[in-house]
Automatic annotation (TrEMBL):
This is alcohol dehydrogenase. It comes from Neurospora crassa (strain ATCC 24698 / 74-OR23-1A / CBS 708.71 / DSM 1257 / FGSC 987). InterPro entries: ADH-like_C, ADH-like_N, ADH_Zn_CS, ER, GroES-like_sf, NAD(P)-bd_dom_sf. GO terms for molecular function: alcohol dehydrogenase (NAD+) activity; zinc ion binding. It comes from the Eukaryota. Pfam families: ADH_N, ADH_zinc_N. Its EC number is 1.1.1.1.
Length: 327
């Protein structure tokens, strides 16, 4: 097992009071607890959530002072005595979910992000904007040695958000998925996952430059919402049979695309509810997430669709009711 020299002090970006600023300073290196690992962070992505944490936008209080960051990729340099699944020298990632109880009904059903005792990196515990960060061994992302740590870092939040959305949407190889906000940080990853999963990706965003980027990443079609005369018709026309995409991943932070998605998504088949919309981020322009949840309830009442979601990143699924014909 490799040995690492671990310093007493390290550099970190520290939010000392709600609202900031972020102070670059030296702080002590923590020692891992029995079920924890210490990761020497080599690269960290920056997420919009980090800004919300600093500004105290959300109803859940942050740790203070706080080291933000939840997209940290690095090397395990120390571990607690109970840790068997991770070795010193392994490459590992710090994600938003830093730890959970592993015993509640959510944890028992693979819904750990909903655990009432969850520890959140860069929010309720210090995260990856420091040279040495702590995480529960059971929850670190194991990164294969052949993977570049720099490009892996943003996968740890942005990547898994859209990957999970695609998986949860139930879309299968050969089917079509519309990605709304495809030219952004999450959307650009969603296009690449969709390609790798054998899906026909229809990118929706604004402007020629984003269109070029989306096509280069592998989108089969691009619908520019700033120039289209009929977005719903154009999205449907972009599917090989003209009947609309089988799933929609909503990454735009405004509400209009939600309603449009209901209009262009394909009807469900054989009477069984089909999951037809993917994920919507909670980063709603600095809104309180409870406001967003209330708005979701209203959309549900207005459209007659059932919304389901929860946790840090909301995955919203629309289930058409028996009598609704979407096409
Ligand atoms: Zn994030
Ligand atoms: Zn739990």
């Amino acid at each position: 097992m490799p040995q690492f020299e671990i310093p007493e002090q390290q550099w970190a970006q520290v939010v000392e009071k709600k609202g900031g600023p972020v102070v670059f300073k030296q702080i002590p290196v923590q020692k891992p607890g029995p079920d924890e690992v210490l990761i020497n962070v080599k690269y960290s992505g920056v997420c919009h959530t980090d800004l919300h944490a600093m500004k105290g936008d959300w109803p859940l209080a942050t740790k203070m002072p706080l080291v933000g960051g939840h997209e940290g990729a690095g090397v395990v340099v120390a571990k607690g005595e109970l840790v068997t699944e991770v070795e010193v020298g392994d490459h590992a990632g710090i994600k938003w979910l830093n730890g959970s109880c592993l015993a509640c009904s959510f944890c028992m059903q693979a819904d750990e992000p909903l655990c009432p005792h969850a520890l959140l990196s860069g929010y309720t515990v210090d995260g990856s904007f420091q040279q040495y960060a702590i995480a529960k061994a059971a929850h670190v992302a194991k990164i294969p040695k052949g993977c570049d740590l720099e490009t892996t870092a943003p996968v740890l939040c942005a990547g898994i958000t859209v990957y999970k959305g695609l998986k949860e949407s139930g879309v299968r190889p050969g089917q079509c998925v519309a990605i709304v906000g495809a030219g952004g940080g999450l959307g650009s990853m969603a296009i690449q996952y969709a390609n790798a999963m054998g899906l026909h990706a229809i990118a929706i965003d604004g402007g020629e430059e984003k269109g070029k980027n989306c096509r280069e990443l592998g989108a089969q079609a691009y619908v520019d919402f700033t120039t289209t005369k009929d977005l719903v018709a154009d999205v449907k026309a972009a599917t090989p049979d003209g009947l609309g995409p089988h799933a929609v991943i909503l990454l735009a932070v405004s509400e209009k695309p939600f309603h449009q998605a209901v209009d262009y998504v394909r009807s469900h088949q054989d009477g069984r509810p089909q999951q037809i919309a993917g994920s919507l981020r909670l980063d709603g322009g600095g809104q309180d997430c409870r406001q967003i949840c209330r708005r979701y309830q209203q959309i549900e009442e207005e459209t007659g669709y059932m919304l389901r979601g929860g946790g840090v990143v909301f995955f919203i699924f629309f289930f058409p009711d028996e009598t609704t014909n979407l096409s």
